[in-house]
């Protein structure tokens, strides 16, 4: 078992729902007649995986999928209902930065307090102290009470402790969600360093960009089950597919007071590697010429607007198909929406009620860019 | 599982020093209050019970006798009351990091221990002033204090575990302590109880706190103190010790079993 850092076998976790928990003596009596109706909630439903030494291991999933519960079990905060969790090596859980920080103490005292909670003796912390202060760039403030620190300074201090006082296995839960852009950059630089040093890291994130960039392995958690375990590329694909459930378009229709006599619906007919066929069905007044507008979005941001060429004339109701060339788009998840305009006045008459979503699977070497532009290089003679 | 590891020592030390630093924040005299508070308290009690109620008839050195009882009782009260709420009070820590849960309870007893030490020093000085002769018998205090510590800690562990699930415990315990205070020979010397209530007197001595207080008074102040070892048959005299051991065993089991789920039950 030399090269394993964490081994999880058939891990189950159930919680008793709070309304069925006794929190006072009165409630015991109230619930006395209702024995056996305690509701359990399955949060983790028999999951197994392992993390090798030196892995940068990503855990991905939507809110409520059990990620945080899994992390807390790995960190030893929660006990499993059943199953085995074996951890080889000292583990530092940064479920949250700055655990145990006390606002009434000075920054200096808090460094030692936090360090102790992470498993470092006073002597060890004395050795690390100067580095921590330097990294946090808070030298002149260390004798001030923490309550007088801005939240940004507190995060900086907490992060610096986390960076310097580290054990064999590190756990990060959504650390990137806090802090400003400069702080995030610092985090990324630090992760890059950890990755190069072959430090074992377990990393929970919604940010697929970060998962692709740092992780060498990842798992996708859905409703307490692992539905994907493998390379970050595979996991990113699952993530994209899982997150596209045709989302209703924003409620702009109400504000626009569109006429009820016009309608447009869109659906995806087929998709293959290079192209995608969409069908629009439209419905309007028999004597009015209409045109169809088409928007392509990525992560909610419009990347292209297209409309029906002049030589196609549409009136009344009917269907029309559109083929989109996918060869210029990088892997990722996209949405398309259709809208109906009057040809003469260009007035918006209807918007399709749902956005069609599609995913282009595959490894994205650019880590997040949208377009593959035609390019042409020439070497100067 | 090892209990005395480098990590556990560091955590315990950090938590205790945090408690201490935070407690006297903003007070001018700071740590001095730890010593001043018992001194002032003693002054009040001494005046009330010795000069107003005149309870000192019949018991030599009644003032010191009274104070020693109160000091030991206060330790029990402080340890159990603070220990009971400790897990809930440190909920933020317990929900986020896996430090050994028992350290949280143990760390809160530190301040009670320091208070006890300071108070005892004050009492012993009082005793000398009062004309009590120091003797090697005073060393008997040590095993008695150990017994008191074990019992208080055991009760604290038990209550802390209960308190996570049932917040009523704090009110129940408050009332119980109030009753127990009068059910324990602290203010009144047992020798004041009339002979026809001897059975009652003997029952009171089965309580571990009563046994500890009476034994301590016997060892430090006066041989006239009524102690179980003299008035009860041996197997009854041993009852308080058995209660302490049983309580400790139950508490450890209960705490160990439940502490795994503190994070989710909080």
Task: Give an account of the 3D structure.
The complex is a heterodimer of chains A (381) and B (266). Chain A is α+β, with helices and mostly antiparallel strands. In chain A, helix 3 crosses helix 4 (122-136) and helix 4 packs across helix 5 (151-164). Chain A contains 9 helices and 18 strands. Chain A has a 6-stranded mixed β-sheet, with helices on both faces. In chain A, strands 12, 13, 14, 16, 17 and 18 form a 6-stranded antiparallel β-sheet that branches. The model of chain B has no long low-confidence stretch (mean pLDDT 88). In chain B, 73% of the residues lie in helices and 0% in strands. Chain B is built from 13 helices and no strands. The radius of gyration of chain B is 20 Å and the shape is globular. Chain B has 266 residues and is an all-alpha fold. Chain B starts with 5 loop residues before the first helix and ends with a helix. The chains are: A alpha+beta (381), B mainly alpha (266). Chains A and B meet through helix 1 and helix 3 of A and helix 1, helix 4 and helix 13 of B.
Question: Which SSEs are present, and which pair or pack?
Answer:
The complex is a heterodimer of chains A (381) and B (266).
Chain A lengths: L3 E13 L8 H7 L8 E13 L3 E6 L5 H8 L7 E6 L3 E4 L12 H11 L4 H15 L14 H14 L4 E5 L7 H16 L3 E5 L3 H7 L2 E6 L2 E6 L1 H11 L9 H5 L6 E9 L3 E9 L5 E10 L2 E7 L6 E2 L2 E8 L6 E11 L5 E4 L4 E5 L21
Parallel strand pairs in A: 3-7, 3-8, 5-6, 6-7
Antiparallel strand pairs in A: 1-2, 1-4, 8-9, 10-11, 11-15, 12-13, 12-14, 12-16, 16-17, 16-18
Chain B lengths: L5 H18 L8 H21 L9 H28 L1 H4 L6 H29 L11 H25 L3 H15 L14 H7 L3 H13 L7 H4 L2 H4 L1 H21 L2 H4 L1
Helix pairs in contact in B: 1-5, 2-3, 2-5, 3-5, 3-6, 3-7, 3-9, 5-6, 6-9, 6-12
What is the count of β-strands of chain B? 0
Distance between the termini of chain A: 59 Å
How large, in whole angstroms, is the Cα Rg of chain B?
Answer: 20 Å
Unreliable segments of chain A (pLDDT under 50, ≥5 consecutive)? Answer: none
Q: Determine the fraction of residues in helical runs of chain A and give it as a percent range.
A: 10-25%
The helix content of chain B, as a percent range, equals: over 70%
Count of discrete alpha- or pi-helical segments spanning 4 or more residues of chain B = 13
The strand count of chain A comes to 18
| Number of distinct helices of chain A | 9
Q: Biggest sheet of chain A, strands in spatial order? A: 5-6-7-3-8-9
Name the CATH homologous superfamily of the largest domain in chain A. P-loop containing nucleotide triphosphate hydrolases
Shape of chain A: elongated
Average pLDDT across residues of chain B? 88
Shape of chain B: globular
Oligomer: heterodimer
Beta-strand fraction estimate of chain A: 25-35%
Uncertain residue ranges of chain B: none
The level 1 CATH classification of the largest domain in chain A is Alpha Beta
């Amino acid at each position: 078992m030399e090269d394993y850092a964490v081994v999880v076998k058939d891990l189950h976790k159930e919680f008793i729902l709070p309304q069925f928990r006794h929190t006072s003596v009165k409630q015991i009596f109230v619930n006395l007649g209702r024995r056996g109706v305690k509701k359990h909630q399955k949060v983790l439903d028999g999951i197994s995986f392992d993390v090798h030494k030196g892995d940068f291991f990503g855990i991905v999933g939507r809110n409520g999928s059990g990620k945080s519960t899994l992390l807390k079990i790995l960190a030893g905060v929660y006990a499993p209902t059943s199953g085995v969790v074996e951890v080889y090596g000292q583990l530092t859980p940064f479920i949250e930065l700055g655990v145990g920080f006390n606002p009434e103490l000075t920054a200096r005292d808090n460094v030692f307090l936090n360090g102790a909670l992470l498993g470092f003796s006073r002597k060890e912390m004395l050795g690390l102290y100067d580095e921590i202060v330097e990294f946090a760039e808070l030298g002149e403030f260390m004798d001030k009470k923490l309550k007088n620190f801005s939240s940004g300074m507190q995060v900086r201090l907490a992060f610096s402790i986390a960076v310097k006082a580290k054990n064999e296995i590190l756990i990060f839960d959504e650390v990137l969600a806090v802090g400003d852009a400069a702080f995030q950059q610092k985090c990324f630089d630090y992760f890059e360093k950890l990755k190069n040093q072959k430090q074992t890291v377990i990393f929970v994130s919604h940010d697929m960009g970060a998962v692709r960039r740092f992780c060498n392995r990842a798992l996708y958690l859905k409703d307490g089950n692992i539905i994907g375990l493998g390379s970050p590329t595979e996991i990113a694909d699952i993530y994209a597919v899982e997150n596209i459930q045709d989302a209703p378009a924003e409620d702009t229709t109400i504000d626009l007071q569109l006429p009820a006599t016009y309608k447009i619906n869109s659906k995806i007919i087929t998709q293959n590697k290079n192209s995608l066929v969409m069908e629009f069905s439209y419905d309007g007044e028999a004597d009015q010429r209409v045109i169809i507008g088409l928007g392509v979005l990525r992560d909610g941001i419009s990347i292209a607007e297209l409309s029906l060429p002049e030589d196609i004339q549409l009136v009344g109701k009917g269907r029309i198909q559109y083929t989109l060339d996918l060869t210029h788009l990088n892997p990722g998840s996209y949405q398309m929406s259709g809208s109906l305009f009057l040809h003469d006045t260009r007035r918006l008459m209807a918007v399709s009620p749902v956005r069609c979503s599609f995913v282009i699977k595959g490894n994205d070497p650019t880590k997040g860019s949208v377009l593959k532009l035609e390019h042409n290089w020439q070497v100067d003679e | 599982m090892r209990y005395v590891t480098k990590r556990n020592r560091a955590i315990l030390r950090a938590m205790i020093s945090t408690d201490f630093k935070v407690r006297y924040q903003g007070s001018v005299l700071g740590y001095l209050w730890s010593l001043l508070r018992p001194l002032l308290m003693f002054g009040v009690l001494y005046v009330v019970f010795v000069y107003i109620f005149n309870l000192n008839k019949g018991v030599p050195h009644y003032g010191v006798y009274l104070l020693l009882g109160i000091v030991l009782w206060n330790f029990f009260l402080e340890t159990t009351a603070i220990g009971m709420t400790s897990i809930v009070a440190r909920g933020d820590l317990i929900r986020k990091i896996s430090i050994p849960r028992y350290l949280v309870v143990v760390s809160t007893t530190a301040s009670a221990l320091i208070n006890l030490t300071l108070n005892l020093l004050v009492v012993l000085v009082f005793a000398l002033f009062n004309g009590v002769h120091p003797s090697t018998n005073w060393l008997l205090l040590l095993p008695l204090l150990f017994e008191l510590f074990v019992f208080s800690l055991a009760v604290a562990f038990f209550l802390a575990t209960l308190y996570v699930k049932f917040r009523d415990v704090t009110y129940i315990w408050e009332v119980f302590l109030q009753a127990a205070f009068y059910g324990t020979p602290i203010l009144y010397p047992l020798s004041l109880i009339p002979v026809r209530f001897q059975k009652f007197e003997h029952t009171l001595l089965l309580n571990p706190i009563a046994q500890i207080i009476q034994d301590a008074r016997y060892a430090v102040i006066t041989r006239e103190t009524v102690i179980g070892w003299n008035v009860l048959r041996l197997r009854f005299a041993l009852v308080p010790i058995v209660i302490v051991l049983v309580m400790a065993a139950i508490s450890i089991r209960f705490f160990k079993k439940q502490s795994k789920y503190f994070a989710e039950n909080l």
